[in-house]
Amino acid sequence: DPLEVIDKYGADALRFTLVTGNAPGNDMRFYWEKVEASRNFANKIWNASRFILMNMDEAPTATLDELTAADRWILSKVNRLTKDVTENMEKYELGIAVAKLNDFFWEEFCDWYIEMVKPRLYNDEDTTKNAAIWTLKTVLIDALKLLHPYMPFITEEIFCNIQDDEESIMISSWPVYDEKFNFPDEEVAIQTIKEAVRNIRNVRAQMNVAPSRKAKVYVVSEDALIRDIFENGRVFFATLAYASEVAVQSDKSGI
Predict the structure, then answer these.
(1) Integer CA distances (angstroms), 189 to 62, 68, 73, 122, 132, in order
(2) Model-level pTM?
(3) 117 and 74 in contact (C-beta within 8 Å)?
(4) Count H helices, E strands: the chain?
(5) CA–CA separation, 68 vs 49, rounded Å?
(6) Counting CB atoms within 10 angstroms of each CB, which of 49, 130, 137, 235 has the fewest?
(7) Are 13 and 38 in contact (CB under 8 A)?
(8) How far out from the chain centre does Cα 27 lie?
(9) What does the alpha-carbon distance between residue 155 and residue 146 come to, in Å, rounded to a whole number?
């Protein structure tokens, strides 16, 4: 009974479940676990939005020159997401569009970008704090608009609380791909840092090292470009890699 499902998990969770992994002409089995996963996805978005609202004192503004590599990376990601999801919807590939939205929200935005900017948000002396808040708000609004056809209720609630420029998400302008938000170099840089963080976490897990135990991390590379990537991302790399200190050098001297 759809009403039973809605009463237990909400209409958004049911809608999202019915589109997820579905293709036109195919039957699909109903699993309570899938609805629960959709509810958890909605909770993830809600919690991320609350976090952003808690850190927004006033309407943030920023220019492209003020953005860090991490800011440019997530803007580039949501820019491509806009293009891909729009194309999928025009081809009625709703299941594919939803999968891309799920991956972007859960992994790129919540698990990576929000964690990257926390050190900047918690430091009032950081000159890039305002750029981080502007990026968080900008990316969230565009992602909410892309998600709205599948989760109309939670996206409308968050949208109306996070901005005052448009009356309702239902009649707001649809996001459009913009070449000026295409940053391939920053995507390569952040992907490099993400791979390093994953490898460090894997080693720590294999050695049963608790996250509370910090370790000095050495980044050794003869490639100046690689060293620059980690120098520029030193603050959030240290946080994500559970590092007490990050040393970037061209050789193994002093290790």
Answers:
(1) 21, 11, 8, 24, 18
(2) 0.91
(3) no
(4) 11, 2
(5) 21
(6) 130
(7) yes
(8) 32
(9) 9
CB 146 within 8 A of CB 101: yes
Q: How far is CA 165 from the centre of its chain?
A: 23
Could you give the angle at the alpha carbon of 97 between the alpha carbons of 95 and 98, nearest 5°? 65
**Can you tell me the distance from the alpha carbon of 227 to that of 196, in angstroms, rounded to the nearest whole number?**
13
Q: Looking up tokens 């240290």, which residue turns up?
A: 238
Q: Mark residue 21 as left, alpha or beta (left: phi above 0; alpha: psi -120 to 50; beta: remaining).
A: left
- Which residues in 29-52 are b (16+ Cβ under 10 Å) and which e? eeeeebbebbbebbebbeebbeeb
User: Going residue by residue through the chain (255 aa), what tens digit of pLDDT does each one get?
Assistant: 999 999 999 999 999 999 988 777 778 888 999 999 999 999 999 999 999 999 987 777 888 889 999 999 999 999 999 999 999 999 999 999 999 999 999 999 999 999 999 999 998 888 899 999 999 999 999 999 999 999 999 999 999 999 999 999 999 999 999 999 999 999 999 999 999 999 999 999 999 988 889 989 999 999 999 999 999 888 899 999 999 989 888 888 777
Which residue is listed with tokens 């998990």? 9
Encoded tokens for 138:
């900008």
Token duo for residue 145 = 């608009």
Three-state SS annotation for 59-101:
CCCCCHHHCCHHHHHHHHHHHHHHHHHHHHHHCCCHHHHHHHH
Phi-psi region at 233: left, alpha or beta (left = phi > 0; alpha = psi -120 to 50): alpha
Which residues does residue 215 pair with via DSSP β-bridges, in sequence order? 243
> Is residue 204 within 8 Å of 242, Cβ to Cβ?
yes
DSSP 213: S
